[in-house]
What we know:
Structural class: alpha/beta
Order of helices and strands: EHEHEHEHEHEHEEEHEH
Strand content: 15-25%
Distance between the termini: 21 Å
Shape: elongated
Strand order of the largest sheet: 2-1-3-4-5-10
Amino acid sequence: MKTAIIGYGKMGHEIEKILRDRGHEVSLTIDVDNASDLTAENLKGIDVAIEFTTPATAYGNIRTCLESGTAVVSGTTGWTSRLGELQELCRQRGGALFYASNYSLGVNLMFRLNRRLAEMMNRFPAYDVAIEETHHTQKKDSPSGTAVTLAEDVIARLDRKSGWVNEATDDPALIGITSYRIGATPGDHSVTYTSEDDVLEIRHSIKNRRTLALGAVIAAEFLCGKHGVYTMDDLF
């Protein structure tokens, strides 16, 4: 598989190592210093581009890949109000796009546990629900995309008739999200239900970036040769 890495920081370097370890070719690397090299000409022959950059640049990077006919896997968060535009462009162009707010296997298992738990908690409105997330100080968006996904999934599954959620809005801000930026913390997320009598919590902690990079590479392997819009639900 011939790949391009868009975003060549710590995450990009980890992705590169895993790609090479798994026998793939890294034919193009793009970072701040050579952003202008992300062109249709340079993307020729690339099977999949893996994009981990910033909220300000992700949309343009992904659009360039799709318009060039290059499949793209993206894990950049903090910009996804425009994700729908790119998904539609992907369908129109017959391209391939894989997006996830978090590529950790454990986090995606947590997403599924979170959905099921929210459904079960409909019967128990005496509990208050809150989400906490902690990341390294260099992370650009706050709250994290993972925390927003957790909140959106809770809101989507809580029954408004139970009194959990205001009928007028599906704003994830209705679920309290507390964000911390501490040192080099790769990522820690928790969903907590608290009553007067007890506390129920599900939590996931990432030890290092490798779990995220490996998930992104597996997604690229899955996407290679396909057409359409995909998420971790499809990979699972």
